[in-house]
Specification:
The chain is of the alpha/beta class. The chain has 2 domains: 11-60; 68-328, Rossmann fold. It contains 12 helices and 13 strands. The strands form 5 sheets. It has a 5-stranded parallel sheet, sandwiched between helices. Helix 1 packs antiparallel against helix 2 (44-60) and helix 9 (232-256) runs parallel beside helix 10 (275-282).
Length: 344
C-alpha cells in the first residue's frame, strides 16, 4: 500500500512538471513566431514574454539575485563579497558586485577620506552595471576620495539614518554624506501594509520606528500581520513626521562632526512630493531637487521606473559641482566653553 502511494505521488509530480514544461515550451514557440508579428504597434513576442515572466514570478516568487541577507537591525542588507545577476525581459541584464564592507563596488581602496552615498535602488544603481551608477561615476570626479555606495535596493529613510549612525560611529574619515531621496521613501518609513506585504514576498522585514517627544525611537523589526496599517488618515501624518525627523537627525549628526550633508531629491514620478518639507528641515544649502533639471520620463528604463545608465550620468553631472563646492567649504572650528576662538 505504501509503495502504491509513493508511485502515485511520483506520477502526479511528473504530470505537474510536464504541464509546466509544456506551458513554457508553448509560450516560447509562440514568442519566437511573434518576432514576425505586430499586434497593436507592439510585438506579440514582447507581450508573451512579459506575460510568461509575470506568471513565473507569481508561481515561483520574485527573482533571487543573491546579494542580500537578513539583518536584525536593518531588516536586510548586502552580503559582503557577493555578486548577483539581475535580469528583466526587455529591460536589462546586469551584474552587481558587493565589496568586503557590504557596499556596491566603487573605484579605489578604503583608507582614503570618504564621500558616503545613502539611499535606495536609485542610488545603488538598480538595472545598471557597476561602472554606470552615479556614485561610481562621481568617483572619477573625486579621485582622492573613496566614494562609498552605501545604498541598498528597497531601503527608505530609516535605513539611511541607521547606516549614517553606523558610518559616523566607525573610524572612517567621512568628509561628506549625500542622501539620495525619492518620494516613495516616505511610504517606506512607517507601517504601511502594502509596503510590508511587498517586502514579505522577498522574505524581508522593515524597521519599525516611532516619533516620541520629537525624537526617533527604534522598535525593532515590523511584523506585517501585527503592525500593518492601511488607513491613510493615520499613515500619512505619521509618515511625514517620521521622515522629517529622520532627515533632521541625519543633518544634526553630520553637523555635530562638521561633515557636509546633502539631500539630493532624485528624478522620480513626483507622485509623492516631499520637497517643501525637506527644504524646510535642512535649508537650501543642503538640498538639491534634481527633478527640476532632469526629465524623469526621458531617463526611466520603461520596465520598473528606475534610471537608465544615461539617467545616472545626468545625475552625476548635476551633483559633481554641488559636492565639489560643499567639500571646499572651510570646516568651522569648535570652541569649548571658557576659551577664546583662534585669532588670525
Amino acid at each position: 500500500m505504501v509503495e502504491k502511494e509513493q508511485k502515485t505521488a511520483i506520477s502526479w509530480k511528473q504530470k505537474i512538471a510536464l504541464v509546466l514544461f509544456s506551458t513554457f515550451l508553448t509560450i516560447g514557440m509562440v514568442a519566437l513566431a511573434g518576432h514576425f508579428i505586430q499586434f497593436g504597434g507592439e510585438s506579440l513576442n514582447k507581450k508573451l514574454v512579459m506575460k510568461a515572466w509575470f506568471l513565473k514570478n507569481t508561481w515561483f516568487g520574485p527573482q533571487q539575485i543573491g546579494i542580500y541577507q537578513a539583518d536584525p537591525i536593518y531588516g536586510w542588507r548586502h552580503k559582503p563579497l557577493s555578486k548577483g545577476n539581475h535580469f528583466e525581459p526587455y529591460g536589462f541584464d546586469v551584474e552587481y558586485h558587493i565589496d568586503e564592507k557590504g557596499n556596491r563596488v566603487t573605484k579605489g581602496p578604503y583608507g582614503r577620506p570618504e564621500i558616503v552615498f545613502l539611499g535606495c535602488s536609485f542610488t545603488f544603481g538598480h538595472g545598471v552595471e557597476d561602472d554606470e551608477n552615479f556614485p561610481m561615476l562621481l568617483s572619477e570626479n573625486f579621485p582622492s576620495y573613496k566614494v562609498v555606495n552605501g545604498a541598498n535596493n528597497g531601503w527608505g529613510t530609516i535605513q539611511a539614518w541607521l547606516r549614517l549612525k553606523e558610518e559616523l560611529a566607525s573610524q572612517n574619515d567621512v568628509r561628506m554624506v549625500v542622501y539620495g531621496f525619492i518620494g516613495h521613501h516616505r511610504q517606506r518609513n512607517y507601517l504601511r501594509t502594502q509596503w510590508l506585504d511587498m517586502l514579505g514576498k522577498y522574505h524581508r522585514q522593515n524597521v519599525h520606528v516611532e516619533a516620541e517627544n520629537g525624537k526617533i525611537v527604534l522598535h525593532g523589526l515590523s511584523d506585517m500581520k501585527k503592525d500593518g496599517l492601511s488607513d491613510d488618515g493615520v499613515l500619512v501624518p505619521k509618515e511625514k513626521e517620521i521622515t522629517r525627523l529622520l532627515i533632521a537627525e541625519m543633518k544634526a549628526a553630520c553637523d555635530e562632526k562638521n561633515i557636509p550633508f546633502l539631500v539630493a531629491y532624485l528624478p522620480d514620478d513626483k507622485s509623492h512630493d516631499f520637497a517643501a518639507e525637506i527644504l524646510q528641515t535642512v535649508g537650501s544649502e543642503h538640498f538639491i531637487d534634481l527633478r527640476n533639471s532632469i526629465d524623469y520620463d526621458s531617463i526611466n528604463n520603461g520596465v520598473d521606473g528606475h534610471p537608465t545608465a544615461d539617467g545616472h550620468r545626468q545625475i552625476a553631472e548635476q551633483l559633481a559641482p554641488v559636492i565639489e563646492k560643499m567639500l571646499e567649504q572651510p570646516i568651522p572650528v569648535k570652541v569649548s566653553a571658557g576659551t577664546n576662538p583662534p585669532q588670525n
